[in-house]
Every structure is written in structure tokens, then in C-alpha cells.
Amino acid sequence: RGALGGLQQGGAALGLIFAVIANELALAIAPGNEFSVIGWRIMFWFGIVPLVIALAVRWKIGESLEWLIKAKPSPEKIPIITIFKRYWKLVIIATIVLFSSGSIYYGIIAYMPTFLSLYTKLSPYQIDNVVLATNLIWLFISPLTGLISDILKYRKLLIALTGFVAGVLIYPIILLLYTGSYILSIFSGLLLGFIFAFQYSIFPSWLSENISTKVRYSYIAFSINLGVALSSFAPYIVTALSIVFKNPVIGTTAFDAIAAILGGIIVLFSPKDRVGLTLE
């Protein structure tokens, strides 16, 4: 489960790599001021390609065997109510942990092009390469780190450890980006991508093993979407804090480091790992 979950989570990095390619294409076709006129339109329409692929793949995939055997014969009438009644603690834990991870993504990885363009003199092509490096290591590391969680038979401990490590290393990572050095920014992106991928790759197996098949997808969907929705405010928050502190390194670190450590603490309150056991 960990390895396959990691493979799945690497798909997000693949999407971001696709976005970098689209941006490079847009910059080549509409350089300079033309980018604000037609360049963004190129990226917008480029997004249709993965959408079509995703829809085609989705229609080829049937229901899971677990669902067909354990849930379909007697499904929950209103699963979301069951979740709030029986698993409300799990929902709170999962939402906070996913908010923590999402804050690192939206507050650093997705924010990286804006951060580098605002506070450094790196060219758009160099910024694209920094983002590309971050996501390439995420893509290739994710299945491996998911597999590690299978081998070690730990989920929540590894999520917690990577959260604590991220909390400690976010400051030097942001500081390296702020130097404006192309080489140091690449290194910073690689380090960030590795840490984020390690934690992110474990989420599918951790979430799926903690709850009954009858309400599993409702639980995961609600927790993920609420956590992501809350963490999507991260770019606004880090920008505001950068203005308040008059220092983008401190402003960005203050929020993201606290969020990372918070997630690392909260995940320890989740149920005991059930690695390799049959799903309920």
C-alpha cells in the first residue's frame, strides 16, 4: 500500500512538471510583456491535456475489490453523518495533518516562483528549473519512501518525523532561496522536494488503514479537501507575515515551520498503524 500510494502521490509532482513545461512554452511564444497578454492563456489551455487524460484513466478504473465485498452489499445511507458521529476525532487529526502538509506545499513549493521573482534576480527560466528540480525529486522519491513505510511498518511515526525535520529545515531552505544563487536554489529545491515527498507519499496508506471501508472514501475526501482548502491560504499568510516582519525569510518560515511541527505532533494521536493488515 505504501509503495503504490507513493506512486500515486508522485502524480502530483508530474502535474507540476507538466506545468513547468507549459510555462517554458508560454515564455518562448510570448516573452516579456506579451506573457501577461497571451502567455497565461497558453498555460490555461495547456491544462486541458492532463484533464482529458485524467478523465480517460478514471473511466477505465472500476470499483475496488474491498468496496465491492465489504461495503456495496450494505452501504451506509449517509456516510458523512457516520463519520462525524463515530470518527470525528480521526477527521480532526487528518484535517490538521493535511493542512500542515498543504501549508508547506502552498506556502513554499507552489509559492516558490512568486518568492523567487519577488526577492531574487533569477530569470524566469532559472526559476522554472528550480521548480523542476523540486518536483523531479518528488516524482522519483515518492514511491521509494512509500515503500520504506511498508518495510519499516511505520506510518504515523514517519509522518511525524518528516514534519519535525521540515520544521527545523524550513528556515535554511528559505534562506538559501533568498540568496538568489541559482545553484543554492536548486539544492534548496531538491532538499525541500525530498522532505515533502517522504511525508506526502505515506498519506494514502495512513488514511486508508485507519477506518472502515464503508465510510473510507467519504472520510478521506472530506479530510483532504478541508485540509487543502484551509492550507490554500498559506501564500496570503506568508506574504502578509513577510510584510509584518519586513523580512520574507522570517515571514515565510514563521508560518510554515509552525504548521509542519503542528502536523508532526497531531499525527501521533492517530490510531495504531495497521501496516500489512486486512482493511476493515
Features:
0% strand; mainly alpha; globular; 280 residues; 14 helices; Growth Hormone, Chain: A
Folded structure, characterized:
78% of the residues lie in helices and 0% in strands. The protein is mainly α and 280 residues long. It has one domain (2-269): MFS general substrate transporter like domains (Growth Hormone, Chain: A, Up-down Bundle), CATH 1.20.1250. It starts with a helix and ends in a 14-residue tail after the last helix. The relative contact order is 0.18. The model has no long low-confidence stretch (mean pLDDT 92).
Could you give a short description of this structure?
This protein has 280 residues and is mainly alpha-helical. It is built from 14 helices and no strands. Helix 9 (156-178) packs antiparallel against helix 10.
Distance between the termini: 15 Å
How much helical structure, as a percent, in the residues?
Answer: over 70%
The H/E string reads HHHHHHHHHHHHHH
Class from helix and strand fractions:
mainly alpha
What would you say the CATH architecture is? Up-down Bundle
Number of helices, where a helix is a run of at least 4 consecutive DSSP H or I residues = 14
Question: Could you outline the blueprint of secondary structure elements for this entry?
Answer:
Layout: H1 2-29, H2 39-46, H3 48-60, H4 65-70, H5 79-86, H6 88-109, H7 112-119, H8 124-152, H9 156-178, H10 182-200, H11 203-208, H12 216-231, H13 234-245, H14 248-266
Helix pairs in contact: 1-2, 1-8, 6-10, 6-12, 6-13, 6-14, 7-8, 8-10, 9-10, 9-14, 13-14
